[in-house]
Amino acid sequence: MKITVVGTGYVGLVTGACFAEIGNHVVCLDRDQERIDALQNGHLPIHEPGLLDIVLRNAHSGRLLFTSDVNLAVAHGRVQFIAVGTPAGEDGSADLQHVLAAAQAIAERMQEDRLIVNKSTVPVGTADRVRETMAAVLRARGQPASVCVVSNPEFLKEGSAVQDFVRPDRVVVGADDEQAAQSMRQLYAPFMRNRDRLIVMDVRSAEFTKYAANAMLATRISFMNELALLAEKLGADIEQVRTGMGTDPRIGTHFLYAGTGYGGSCFPKDVKALVHTAREAGQELSILQAVQAVNDRQKQVLVDKIVARFGSDLQGRRFALWGLAFKPDTDDMREAPSLTIIEQLLARGAEIAAYDPVALAQARLVLGERPGLHLVGQADAALEGADALVIVTEWKEFRSPDFAHLAATLRQPVVFDGRNLFEPADMQALGLEYHAIGRGAPL
Ligand code: NAD
C-alpha cells in the first residue's frame, strides 16, 4: 500500500518505518526541516532502540522517503496517518492545532479520495472535527473527492516502540465505515499473523480507549506511590508489598512500581486532558484529580528526603544525579521528574553533576545553561566530590554499580534512590546510607 505519515516523532517515525519494513511504500512528512535533513542523511532525531536499522534499510530500498514537501506527501498515500503532537493547552485540554493543521493541509491538496487515520492521542469527537475541517476545505475548492476519518490510537511505549509496534498487544481501530475498517485490517494483517489482535469499534470509543488506558496506568503508579508513603510511616516495605499484590492475576505485576512520579509526553497531558474533557461534559473525575495531585507531590519526594537529611539550605552541597530522561531507553525529557528535582535542588543552592546515557543533549536543550548544573558524560564523573548520589531514572547501567568505588568517591556514602534499585540491607552491609521510596523505617 502507499502510505503517508504526517509527523516524524516517536510515533510517526516508528509507524512509517515499521509499515515500510513489511513492504509498503511510505512517505514521512514533517514540517521541521532539520528533522527531515537528519533523516535523509541517515540520522535519527530521537533515541529509540532498533529503529535506526529499520529506517536505514527501508530508506535504502526506496520504500521509505522523508520529506517536508506537503504536495508530494499528500499525493503519495491513499492512507494518510496523522501522528503529530497534541500537547496540553493552558487549560489542560489537548491542543489540536497540529492535528487540524495537518488535516487542512491534506484537504487543500488532495485530488482523490483519502483515508485519514488519526494516530495522535485526541479527545473524543476529534475525528468529527477533522472530517468537518476537511469537508469545508473540499467544498470551498469545489473538489468532489471524499474523506473518511478513522481513529487508530497508538499504544507503543518509548524505549520499546519498535517491538510494541510489530508485536502489538492490540490494535484499536475506530471506524464508522466498514470499507475503512477493512482497509485497516489489510494494513495491519502482516502484524497479526499468529493471532488477530485488531479490535474494531466506533470512532468515539476508540478515541476514549486511549485516554482510558493511560489514565488507568497513571492511576496504578499514583496508587503505589501513595501507598509507598504510608509504608514508610508504618515500617513496611513497598517492594515486598508489590510482589505480594502483583502475583494476584486480577492485579498483575506491571506498572506497580513506586518511584519519583510519572512523567513523559503522554501520562501527564493525557490525564489532564481527560479531566478537562469530563469537566466540559459536566462530570468531575475525582480519582484522576487525586492521581494528578499524588503525582505532583511524588515528584518532590526525593527532594524532601534530601532536605530531611542535609537541611533546607543546600549551599555548598553537591549532588550526583543519575538519570535525566523520564524513563530508561529514551532521550525524552518531557515532564521528566528529573526536571523538578533539579529545579528544586538548584533553588536551594546545591550544585548538581548530572549524567544520563542518552538524554544529555535533550537535557541541555530543555534546561539550558544553569549556574550550579553540570551535565557530565560519565556516571563516575558525576560522583566526584558529591555529598550524595541521587538516582532518578532506572537505566540498566545503574543497576549494578561498583559500590566500593561509589562509597570511596562520594564525599559521604549516601544514596537517594528514586527507583528502588537495591536492597536496603545490602546497602547497609556495604556501608552505604540508603534512602529509597516506601521502604521500611520512617525518615
Ligand atoms: P513528537 O512531538 O515526538 O513528534 C511530532 C512531530 O510532528 C514533530 O516532529 C513535529 O515537527 C511534527 N508536526 C507537527 N505538526 C505538523 C504538521 N502540521 N505537518 C507535519 N509535521 C508536523 O510527538 P510524539 O511523541 O510522536 O506523539 C505524537 C502523538 O502520538 C501525540 O498525540 C501523542 O500523545 C501520541 N502518542 C505518543 C506516544 C509516545 O510514546 N511518544 C505513544 C502513544 C501515543
TrEMBL record:
Where, by residue number, does substrate bind?
A: 155-158, 210, 255-259, 263, 327
Q: In which pathway does it act?
A: Nucleotide-sugar biosynthesis; UDP-alpha-D-glucuronate biosynthesis; UDP-alpha-D-glucuronate from UDP-alpha-D-glucose: step 1/1
Q: What is its EC number?
A: 1.1.1.22
Its top-level enzyme class, in one word, is: oxidoreductase
Any one GO MF term held by the record is: UDP-glucose 6-dehydrogenase activity
Q: Does the keyword Oxidoreductase apply?
A: yes
List, alphabetically, the Pfam families matched.
Answer: UDPG_MGDP_dh, UDPG_MGDP_dh_C, UDPG_MGDP_dh_N
Give the binding site residues for NAD(+).
30, 35, 86, 121, 158, 269, 334
Annotated membrane-spanning segments are none
Q: Which UniProt keywords apply?
A: NAD, Oxidoreductase
Q: Which reaction does it catalyse?
A: UDP-alpha-D-glucose + 2 NAD(+) + H2O = UDP-alpha-D-glucuronate + 2 NADH + 3 H(+)
Listed InterPro entries: 6-PGluconate_DH-like_C_sf, NAD(P)-bd_dom_sf, UDP-Glc/GDP-Man, UDP-Glc/GDP-Man_DH_C, UDP-Glc/GDP-Man_DH_C_sf, UDP-Glc/GDP-Man_DH_dimer, UDP-Glc/GDP-Man_DH_N, UDPglc_DH_bac
What Gene Ontology terms for biological process does this UniProt record contain? Answer: polysaccharide biosynthetic process; UDP-glucuronate biosynthetic process
Q: Which Gene3D superfamilies match?
A: Cytochrome c1, transmembrane anchor, C-terminal (1.20.5.100), NAD(P)-binding Rossmann-like Domain (3.40.50.720)
Q: Which residues form the UDP-glucose/GDP-mannose dehydrogenase C-terminal domain?
A: 320-424
**Keyword NAD attached:** yes
Q: Where is the active site?
A: 266
Q: Which family does it belong to?
A: Belongs to the UDP-glucose/GDP-mannose dehydrogenase family.
Q: What is this protein's record name?
A: UDP-glucose 6-dehydrogenase
Species this chain originates from = Acidovorax delafieldii 2AN
